[in-house]
């Protein structure tokens, strides 16, 4: 399990903005803090509440912070989801489970017959690539404590 003070695991996936592109986490480190917000499924209730909360609070994160929502959904589904909810940050499509396995945030939707989804989790990574914050949901309907997340981001309105 990735923990605070660990070097962040690198992974590859698909970056979903208005376009689709290859993604490697290490290529996005070094400029400022990175927030990885793992979520189980696009268009589901709690996931949508979480992504909208991140969208609505993003100005609190500080100007140098990069946010990525990470899900095992397919890229085209995430592009539609991002557009539907006007998310200002990129999403990362991880259908091959590289990210969820690297961060050990694997869960399932057994009742729907889905073996691997992301466990709801949030990691903050500093510019040097070190994990400085980790939050893991105890149950599928739990959202992060947003004030604690903001406080953990260097340069955020709460850490000034």
TrEMBL record:
Catalytic residues in the record: 47
Pfam hit, one: AhpC-TSA
Gene Ontology molecular functions: oxidoreductase activity
Gene3D superfamilies: Glutaredoxin
Domain Thioredoxin: 2-158
Keyword Oxidoreductase belongs to the record: yes
Keywords: Oxidoreductase, Redox-active center
InterPro entries: AhpC/TSA (IPR000866), Peroxiredoxin_AhpC-typ (IPR024706), Thioredoxin-like_sf (IPR036249), Thioredoxin_domain (IPR013766), Tpx_Peroxidase_subfamily (IPR050455)
The protein's name: Redoxin domain-containing protein
Source organism (scientific name): Halorubrum tibetense
């Amino acid at each position: 399990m990735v923990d605070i003070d660990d070097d962040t695991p690198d992974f590859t996936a698909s970056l979903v903005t208005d376009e689709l592109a290859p993604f490697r986490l290490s290529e996005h480190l070094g400029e400022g803090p990175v927030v990885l917000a793992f979520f189980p499924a696009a268009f589901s209730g709690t996931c949508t509440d979480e992504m909208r909360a991140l969208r609505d609070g993003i100005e609190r994160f500080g100007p140098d912070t990069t946010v990525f929502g990470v899900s095992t959904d397919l890229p085209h589904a995430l592009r539609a989801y991002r557009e539907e909810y006007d998310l200002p940050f990129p999403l990362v499509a991880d259908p091959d489970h590289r990210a969820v396995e690297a961060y050990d945030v694997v869960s399932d939707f057994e009742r729907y017959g889905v073996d691997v989804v992301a466990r709801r989790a949030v990691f903050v990574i500093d510019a040097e690539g070190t994990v400085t914050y980790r939050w893991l949901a105890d149950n599928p309907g739990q959202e992060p404590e947003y004030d604690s997340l903001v406080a953990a981001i260097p340069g955020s309105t709460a850490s000034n």
